[in-house]
Each structure stands twice: as structure tokens, then as C-alpha cells.
């Protein structure tokens, strides 16, 4: 069994590049890693392939993992054929969705030029994306008081204003924000507020 714990581990298997999007909501992912060749990214973007890419269509309609060659969907723009000219000859698509109420899914697409991915590699890539998906799940341990303080930070209010509006001391506001930052692993209150906003908690 292969275990992947870092981007470097993924690089070894997906030798010609990969793209991972974590917790994609209505539009944008919470986090993304684009390690695909820059010329392919430029070509893909310029020609707006995302709307026609059979890999992306499979990802949004399924969960699990599949080789690109096994995807039985129309490819009128010949996206997969064109990918081959950039060294992306063989690939795997991975999609994860855990039924969360936000409708967020995570996915990855991985490529190499020399051979099809082996089943153990496919399983390892699927497990890696699933692990990252769960790691980016919204926290459930934030209190309503902490979320309220973070919402006010996001609205641009200063510490003194927040304390006045909540009828508490500035020290109490600081403590709420400190607790929230610790739970989220955030460096600043603004970062914590942005994170809970992305999670859809405020």
C-alpha cells in the first residue's frame, strides 16, 4: 500500500504535474495547488477548456477515482488529445464529496507521460485528496460568541467598537479572538475572519 503525506510524495507519482482543488463551493476552492506545466495551463486557460473538459465534467458528476482513458464522455474540443502534446498522456481524476450541507467537493487530476497509473497509485491519490478534504472541513468547535466577534472583524470594526457593541470589555473581545485564532490555526484575527467566511460560518 502506498501512502502519500506531502506534495513531494504526489510529485513522485504524478511526474508530469497535477492540480488539486479543496472544498470547492459555488465558485472558488478554499485551497488549490496547481503543479501542472505552465504552458499547458496557459493553453488550457486561453482556450477555456474547463467548460468542455471531460475530466472536469466527470469530477463534478461522480466521486471516487478513474483513469482519464476510462472516462466515457464526449470531448468535442479534444482536450485530452491536446493535453498529450504537453506531456500529459496518462491521467487520473479523483473526486470527493462527503454530503456536507455547503455542497463543497474536493478533486484532483494527476498526470504522467510514461504509463497508466497503477491501481495502488490511484488508491493512494484518492486517499490523499480525501484526507486533505477532511482536513479542510469547517471547524465545529467555534462558539457563537467567537463567530460574532469574527463577523465584526470581517466588517472592519475596531476592537473598541466591537467591545462597545457587544457590551463587553476589550479584554474579553481579545480573548474571544485569541480562542478563535487558536482553533483555526490563524495568525491574525483578520485571517481567522476570512477563514470562517470561506467556510460559510459567518
UniProtKB/TrEMBL annotation:
Gene3D superfamilies, per database record: Transcription factor LuxR-like, autoinducer-binding domain, Winged helix-like DNA-binding domain superfamily/Winged helix DNA-binding domain
PANTHER family on file: DNA-BINDING TRANSCRIPTIONAL ACTIVATOR DEVR_DOSR
Domain HTH luxR-type: 135-200
Superkingdom: Bacteria
Name of the featured protein: Transcriptional regulator
Keywords (A to Z) from UniProt: DNA-binding, Transcription, Transcription regulation
Coiled coil start-end: none
GO molecular function: DNA binding
Gene Ontology BP annotations: regulation of DNA-templated transcription
Amino acid at each position: 500500500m502506498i501512502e502519500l503525506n506531502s506534495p513531494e510524495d504526489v510529485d513522485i507519482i504524478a511526474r508530469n504535474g497535477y492540480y488539486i482543488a479543496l472544498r470547492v463551493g459555488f465558485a472558488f476552492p478554499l485551497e488549490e495547488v496547481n503543479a501542472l506545466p505552465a504552458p499547458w495551463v496557459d493553453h488550457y486557460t486561453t482556450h477555456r477548456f474547463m467548460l468542455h473538459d471531460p475530466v472536469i465534467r466527470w469530477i463534478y458528476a461522480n466521486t471516487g477515482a478513474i483513469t482519464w482513458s476510462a472516462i466515457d464522455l464526449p470531448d468535442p474540443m479534444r482536450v485530452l488529445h491536446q493535453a498529450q502534446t504537453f506531456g500529459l498522456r496518462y491521467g487520473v481524476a479523483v473526486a470527493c464529496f462527503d454530503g456536507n450541507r455547503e455542497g463543497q467537493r474536493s478533486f484532483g487530476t494527476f498526470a504522467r507521460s510514461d504509463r497508466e497509473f497503477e491501481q495502488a497509485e490511484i488508491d493512494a491519490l484518492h486517499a490523499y485528496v480525501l484526507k486533505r478534504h477532511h482536513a479542510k472541513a469547517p471547524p465545529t468547535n467555534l462558539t457563537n460568541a467567537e463567530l460574532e466577534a469574527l463577523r465584526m472583524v470581517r466588517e472592519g470594526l475596531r476592537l473598541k467598537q466591537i467591545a462597545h457593541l457587544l457590551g463587553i470589555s476589550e479584554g474579553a473581545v481579545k480573548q474571544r479572538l485569541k480562542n478563535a485564532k487558536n482553533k483555526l490555526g490563524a495568525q491574525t484575527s483578520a485571517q481567522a475572519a476570512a477563514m470562517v467566511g470561506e467556510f460559510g460560518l459567518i
